[in-house]
């Protein structure tokens, strides 16, 4: 079947708005997995009767699996059908949620969280499906909506989790996740058309294993370095070993007939600078996720805290996700009129402004609310622009894998932010009631780091070519 026949087959049965809505819902469910356990993170040693070093894996394992699974699932979607792989990922989400809900100890929860992490791949796959089924005029708005789910799912889910933890049993968090997964599975099966645009060739199992091993090494060093010691053998061995594996993996990919990822495409200036900017945006976004809730919940006596409850803090953080959702239609209009490159530069600049605002004003609850709204504006525009830039610079049969790599770079930024800011907050403390808590200076340093990451991402966005070369792409260029 030719390319036009393939595209016609994708668009004949299901209303496009319904397909977009279902894909966005799956994105919300996926993003919620990352804030699912935030309200109970500090209580995990008590709840699971385990050491704090062991319970840290409840968060770390999700990050590791997500980083590895996202580009691999993207490639699998390009080869074997994007909807099919989305259904598999949702199935893993359901299985992981059930395992964690029924677990009585640390082992079961870690296994469940690992399976939940795999579902992150539904977001780049959903964006790739949208490219297959939507006309160019409607693609920008749909991609903006799908991209917004990365922030909306976590921001809206956080107060829900906080409410459950404060009034009900923590196992209900995982039962809720399983129920959401079942709903998503049914909706995707019914309303997302089967994929007929596929990439021929064999799946690169060696490349997938090499990428996973290299990423695990690097991300382990980043995420656990503060606990292990940055110069400890474990940290250095993981980090250096991971980098060496990734270098070897790159050499192998350039010589493979059917690579997991075509690095020559990934090296195009548009793709390269967009992915590098994604690191900065991932860092800046997660930086506020680390700092703002702590500022809101710390006691006023610390000199930095505002003494709010967990639920109130979650409500203050939530508007950033809602803003991303509201501006999705505006993102589509801006992309069509001014281009994705402008959107990325504007979004990264807005995030930089939000951090500068925090450096000047962060002593009242409303200060943090305003800054969080600015973060939502900036991240909303940025996350909507990046997949559009990627899709306009890669062949149509590589959209799943290429968007997966872009999501991986964002995950790398969040990992670095988590490790670096946690180290800063742990190093600069004051004593409150016999307990060491982050000082005002610690948050100031974190805000400067977030601002620097946003400015770096803005500079990289300006380096993206105005009119990139497009090979075998089906979308007109406005970047």
UniProtKB/TrEMBL annotation:
Subcellular location: Cell membrane
Primary location group: membrane
Top-level taxon of origin: Bacteria
Keywords: Membrane, Transmembrane, Transmembrane helix, Transport
CDD domains in alphabetical order: MFS_MMR_MDR_like
GO MF entries: transmembrane transporter activity
One GO cellular component, as annotated: plasma membrane
The keyword Transmembrane is annotated on this UniProt entry: yes
Amino-acid biosynthesis listed as a keyword: no
Domain Major facilitator superfamily (MFS) profile per the UniProt entry, residue ranges: 19-468
Spans through the membrane: 17-35, 55-73, 85-104, 142-164, 170-191, 203-222, 228-249, 270-290, 310-330, 342-360, 366-386, 407-430, 442-464
Membrane topology type: Multi-pass membrane protein
PROSITE patterns, per the entry: MFS (PS50850)
PANTHER family associated with the record: MAJOR FACILITATOR SUPERFAMILY MULTIDRUG TRANSPORTER MFSC
Protein's recorded name: MFS transporter
Native species: Microbacterium paludicola
